[in-house]
Amino acid sequence: MSPRLAQKIAFTVLLLATLLVVLPVIFILGIIVAKGASAISWEFLFSMPRDGMTAGGIFPAILGTLYLVLGAILFAVPLGVLAAVYLVEYSSDNWFSRLVKLAIVNLAGVPSVVYGLFGLGIFVTFFRFGASILSGSLTLGIMILPVIITSAREALESVPRHFRVVSLSLGASRWQTIRHSVLPHALPGILTGMILGLGRAAGETAPILFTVAAFYLPRLPQSVFDQTMALPYHLYVISTQVPGIAENVRYGTALVLLSLVLLLNLAAILLRSRFRRKKKW
Amino acid sequence: MTANRLRKLKEWLIEKAILLSGIFSVVFVLLIFLFLLREGFSLFHGESVGDFLFGKSWYPISDPPRFGILPLILGSLLVTLGAAAISVPIGIAAALYIAEIAPGRLKEGLKAGIELLAAIPSVVIGFIGMITLGPWIKSLFNIPTGLTALTGSVTLAFMAMPTIVSIAEDAITAVPRQYREAAIAMGATKWQTTWRIVARAARPGMVAAVMLGIGRVIGETMAVMMVTGNAAVIPASFLQPVRTLTATIAAEMGESVQGGSHYAALFAIGIVLFVITFLINGVADIYLHRSRR
After folding, report:
1. Is there a single domain that holds both residue B153 and residue B262?
2. How far apart are CA A76 and CA A25, in angstroms?
């Protein structure tokens, strides 16, 4: 076989493999939009479920997911950004900073259901928050911490060193330098990580299974100590636990969840590519 | 003067908060392990570690209950091996295509597509797998249920691929330009360069990519619970229902009594999962560092 022919064949095989990875995305999106779009209506999005969840809407699940995601972000963003500032601006390459980095890698690899167990053990039981929005948000918050830290680190590292040198040489303190010469330039990158974290938290089911998620609630949650319904758990429930739910309601719920998560991710991708193109240094 | 001191105090506080935030990541890892132990350890008052890990029957609610997780370990192993067999060759090939061959615009588009695949919630992938892949496998092999280990492997392969592709692609892109230029100058074709030089140089990163992909598969919960049929028996083939470690925790925690032995056993499974993923991620990290050097 001539090398040119071998190359042709090899490139074709690689292209086919790539299509195998990307086409399922289009397949999944296509089938969910095609079968779920008919379920979407004002009533579906903004009313309570009725008749054993076979009719009415999914408003409590949507609202619950928004509460959980908001709580997770409020917890994880300040903590994650400060941790990134520590790693990039303060620590030198010693055993402790390596330990912190290893911990972050491992936090990213802990299975989501183990986060659920952890949340059950510490927040629900030990701190006696019960199965509540507070417990669920904190569990999700710790889960998305590695996403936030990693993006913030990359953003801080991409700010050139001489920004810091100039600021320090003008007599600014270390924190003033970070606050006024580094953080503003890292902001789009930090924001990207925040949006990715939002998307991840919105879609996860296993961590909220034992910490907050309710099968069905007749009323909306009143405080952070209440349980709530949530979109991903609701999709799980109506597709495996409750018989007799119309197909388009299941697909419709999947469509709402998927749209929420993918729009967040798309926003993050666009923000990141604009940020990279705009960078002048 | 006082304003200056106030500012200094404020900065001192902020710097302590920054240091504390750095420490928190380590604290969380320790806390996760401690709380798994705290809730799970009581199982081993009445049960030996050997009986737990290698016991052949998982009957948590019979009397007396049996807490042998071997069927669950084998279930996880079977599904993971199947998923790896599908996702590793396809994922590495796609990474080579995206890093070395795809032209600029297509490359950006493909990378975005793979990022979106990674972003699809596992419950949505499980839902689609259950409703489309399951019936298809059922009729293809003419078996009583389409919810089998094979269905789980195929579904999970798609969840491992984004991890494998993106990390392998990074490793391939990081191979120095001079390697390619030298090979081309010696008269090698682009494919010979890609396969014999670049892919070889990127191997540590590819190993890390595969390990992280497998780590993701072992830890995956919702999708696998929805498509594998959930039978806690030692699997004999890919075409029969299995139950994984993760699915067992998710499916049974709701029925267990807090503080009871079943509850403790589920946390003990959590310890096993935590240790497995900890090892996989630790080793993958070593390979990643090697590939960056």
Report:
1. yes
2. 29
